[in-house]
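tokens incoming
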């Protein structure tokens, strides 16, 4: 990640993204977490595919399932950017590098962003394959994308109100088209190791029903830039101590493939709401 001001860097990346996509504006974006790329094919054939390595400020993902690209699809009259290049703190990145893709699509015009992820389930009633909409989160990463220099004047203040971080109106819209969807609270941790059973008990006491290693910083950055934020988790495994099963990343990827049809059906219903 460059030492350049992160907002100026995102603006440069947004300009390049729009040029390579051949459009004047991105209307909305979906960040594809582990397992969600397979479901996103239901949104249609991309009109453009931009490698993030060609955009200023992007760092290469090192995690299987994150291929480093942004796909442009048309949903009705809207240009929808599918971000398939998430990076994480545990890869050695700064908070600014982690949120750079989100800042880029927002600088390109997106007013709504959907943050998807694969998560461990703390609730025995929400087993692998369940899709949960986030109503709130607990940030346990010990950092924020708003640390450091004061944001430029044309951006919001660094002291951002997060009381309606996961937008109430968007969540209500989703519940109207998917009335059976569950809601939960996501605990964002640094990783890359999985949590201990004692830590999972602590998270449950805090009110969390899901745990993962992404999303929270992106959500803060998006809200700071005035976007409407929606969070969606695919439960890929039970968290440590909920069952006696061992945890591994291949299980996460396999769960995403198994849920491809249901993820695609959900994204087809959600995308027109953005």
């Amino acid at each position: 990640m460059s030492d350049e001001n992160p907002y100026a860097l995102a603006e440069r990346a947004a300009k390049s993204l729009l040029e390579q996509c051949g459009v004047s504006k991105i209307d909305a974006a979906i960040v594809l977490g582990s397992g969600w790329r397979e479901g996103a094919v239901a949104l249609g054939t991309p009109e453009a595919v931009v490698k993030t390595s060609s955009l200023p400020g992007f760092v290469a993902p090192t995690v299987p399932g994150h291929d480093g690209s942004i796909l442009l699809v048309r949903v009705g009259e809207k240009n929808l950017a599918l971000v398939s290049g998430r990076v994480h703190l545990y890869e050695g990145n700064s908070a600014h590098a982690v949120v750079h893709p989100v800042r880029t699509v927002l600088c390109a015009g997106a007013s709504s962003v959907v943050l998807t992820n694969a998560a461990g389930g703390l609730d025995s009633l929400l087993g692998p394959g369940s899709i949960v909409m986030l109503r709130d989160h607990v940030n346990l990463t010990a950092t924020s994308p708003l640390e450091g220099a004061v944001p430029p004047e044309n951006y919001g203040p660094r002291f951002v109100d997060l009381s309606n971080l996961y937008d109430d109106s968007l969540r209500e819209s989703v519940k109207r088209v998917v009335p059976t969807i569950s809601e939960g609270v996501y605990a964002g941790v640094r990783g890359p190791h999985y949590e201990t059973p004692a830590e999972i008990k602590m998270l449950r006491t805090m009110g969390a029903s899901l745990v993962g290693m992404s999303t929270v910083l992106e959500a803060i950055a998006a809200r700071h830039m005035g976007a409407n934020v929606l969070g969606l988790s695919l439960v890929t495994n039970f968290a440590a101590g909920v069952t006696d099963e061992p945890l591994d990343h291949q299980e996460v990827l396999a769960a995403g493939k198994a849920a491809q049809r249901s993820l695609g059906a959900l994204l087809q219903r959600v995308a027109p709401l953005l």
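note: The beta strands are 28-31, 48-51, 69-75, 78-84, 112-121, 131-139, 182-188, 210-212, 228-238.
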